């Protein structure tokens, strides 16, 4: 497992621990759909895609945490 994959999984674990309800597969699928709809090229480099997924999870984690307070 490469570093970007490890970071993505660690960030997803934090998301789940703070009450996130989506699966990693759902988040990745939604991200691919949004990128396709908006005309963006989906990165063929798995490291780059993992980094984007990690950032999406990171930005959604605090919102999930606030909602559960």
How far is the N terminus from the C terminus? Answer: 35 Å
The overall pLDDT, averaged over residues, is 89
So what's the overall shape?
globular
Low-confidence stretches: none
Main β-sheet description = none
User: What class would the helix/strand composition place it in?
Assistant: mainly alpha
Summary?
The chain is 75% helix and 0% strand.
Give a description of the structure.
There is one protein chain. With 69 residues, the protein is mainly α. It has a domain at 1-16 and 33-61. The chain has helices at residues 3-17, 24-37, 46-68.
Which key terms come to mind for this protein?
single chain, mainly alpha, 69 residues
Itemize the secondary structure elements and their pairings.
Blueprint: H1 3-17, H2 24-37, H3 46-68
Helix pairs in contact: 1-3
């Amino acid at each position: 497992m490469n570093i970007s994959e490890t970071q993505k999984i660690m960030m997803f674990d934090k998301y789940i621990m703070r009450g996130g309800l989506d699966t990693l597969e759902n988040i990745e699928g939604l991200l691919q759909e949004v990128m396709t709809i908006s005309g963006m090229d989906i990165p063929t480099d798995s490291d780059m895609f993992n980094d984007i997924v990690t950032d999406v999870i990171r930005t959604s984690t605090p919102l999930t945490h606030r909602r559960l307070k």
